[in-house]
Design goal:
The structure is a single chain. The protein is of the alpha/beta class. Helices cover 37% and strands 21% of the residues. It has seven helices and eight strands, in the order H-H-E-H-E-H-E-E-H-E-H-E-H-E-E. Strands 1, 2, 3, 4, 5, 6, 7 and 8 form an eight-stranded mixed beta sheet that branches. Helix 4 links the parallel strand 2 and strand 3.
């Protein structure tokens, strides 16, 4: 059952209507390259979960279309709070959720800016593919403060970082687009590693380790943060 006391309107919730959510579900399954990318990302996540050790309950935020549920529910004594600001994302995720996983999953409609959970209520927060959408430092700080409040032990968070081939190419691409349209709105951002790591520290986290999708080539990095 989805919790009804949703508090804060997330800035992306309007984007993920049912059609978009359904498309997002198929996004990582429709081609050989997307399946290979998903395999690599799942591997990074598994390493991070093994690193933090025993986590009896995990907040998957945003849970999206449930792509990581099979991984998160591999341990049968683990419970998952699958949370998203989009009701349609949650709907599509539950449509495709195998019956054997459902007893381990509790659904929550909430925002990363104002998580409708008590302090220190989960062992680990699992946050894939959110922060690279947040270009405003104050908004990132609000999310990180909420993560610090809600987790007891750790946060696994992925985002885009600089210092690699894809980031350099993306910078050039963005500069060219900005020249053509100076007023365009960006919805994906690359972070300087030293700056985002400083933000983690300011929120109270220490960086335990990180995993790169393809070192030196890809922008994707998964950080393991400890409280």
């Amino acid at each position: 059952m989805i919790a009804k006391d949703f508090i804060d309107k997330d800035e992306f919730a309007h984007k993920y209507n049912e059609d978009h959510a359904r498309s997002y579900y198929h996004k990582h399954r429709k081609s050989w390259s997307s399946r290979l990318s998903d395999w690599r990302e799942q591997g990074m996540a598994r390493k991070a979960l093994n690193y933090v050790g025993e986590s009896k309950n995990i907040l998957d935020l945003p849970c999206g279309a449930g792509r990581f549920w099979p991984l998160l529910t591999e341990k049968k004594d683990r419970s998952i709070i699958a949370a998203d600001s989009s009701v349609d994302m949650i709907k599509i995720a539950t449509e495709h959720c195998p019956k054997e996983m459902r007893p381990q999953i509790k659904l929550l409609h909430t925002s990363a800016y104002n998580i409708n959970l008590a302090d220190s209520s989960v062992d680990t927060i699992f946050c894939m593919r959110l922060l690279h959408h947040i270009g405003d430092a104050e908004k990132r700080r609000k999310i990180l403060d909420e993560f610090y409040r809600v987790t007891r032990k750790s946060v696994l968070v992925s985002l885009w970082v600089d210092g690699n081939f894809k980031a350099r190419r993306r910078y050039k691409h963005d500069q060219a687009r900005d020249l053509k349209n100076p007023h365009r709105l960006r919805n994906r951002f690359i972070f300087k590693r030293e700056e985002i790591e400083k933000e983690f520290s300011q929120a109270g986290f220490s960086i335990a380790t990180h995993y790169d999708f393809l070192p030196g080539y890809s922008m994707w990095r998964l950080y393991v943060l400890q409280k």
